[in-house]
């Protein structure tokens, strides 16, 4: 990929709500509401991340509150049944925590979230100490990138390299993150390569081509 991709440290939140293992259930609920988050890291010592408590970890408490029938209980995983009785963060947390490093690319963080099916990731250093949190919303900030900035990167890093003049004559248009490449190029076999590279540019929603073989290609 051309250009320099954004990394997690560019978008993560560094002021983080975190709890210790002994934090009670009610405190967790209050913290999530006050901070408007769906999960909090569980730390020990000076900030070592040992787990994460999410809304999903806490929901069995309400789910099982009215003592459902035994048939229903048997359908629930044993871990969920145990969390229905849990009173502290240490008993509720998912451990080990799924984390990400600050120097990971946003694409890497997004893949980690997708695989783990989580909405937020603690950001840790090489020793596992908490540095921040990155959320789905943080990763989507890249799509707020200005159209002109996208156009300049595509022109400089991709078009100038794949379709240089005088053999090619290419114009670019970018609207709401959709890149349109217009003109004449000598080697149309490079279009799939260009499409892959343009889609890899951060902030690009889609790429479209309106291209024809250049004059020299037609004569060859």
From TrEMBL:
<feature type="domain" description="BON">
    <location>
        <begin position="146"/>
        <end position="215"/>
    </location>
</feature>
<dbReference type="InterPro" id="IPR017080">
    <property type="entry name" value="UCP036990_CBS_BON"/>
</dbReference>
<protein>
    <submittedName>
        <fullName>CBS domain-containing protein</fullName>
    </submittedName>
</protein>
<keyword id="KW-0129">CBS domain</keyword>
<feature type="domain" description="CBS">
    <location>
        <begin position="12"/>
        <end position="71"/>
    </location>
</feature>
<dbReference type="InterPro" id="IPR007055">
    <property type="entry name" value="BON_dom"/>
</dbReference>
<dbReference type="InterPro" id="IPR051257">
    <property type="entry name" value="Diverse_CBS-Domain"/>
</dbReference>
<dbReference type="InterPro" id="IPR046342">
    <property type="entry name" value="CBS_dom_sf"/>
</dbReference>
<dbReference type="Pfam" id="PF00571">
    <property type="entry name" value="CBS"/>
</dbReference>
<dbReference type="InterPro" id="IPR000644">
    <property type="entry name" value="CBS_dom"/>
</dbReference>
<feature type="domain" description="CBS">
    <location>
        <begin position="93"/>
        <end position="149"/>
    </location>
</feature>
<dbReference type="Pfam" id="PF04972">
    <property type="entry name" value="BON"/>
</dbReference>
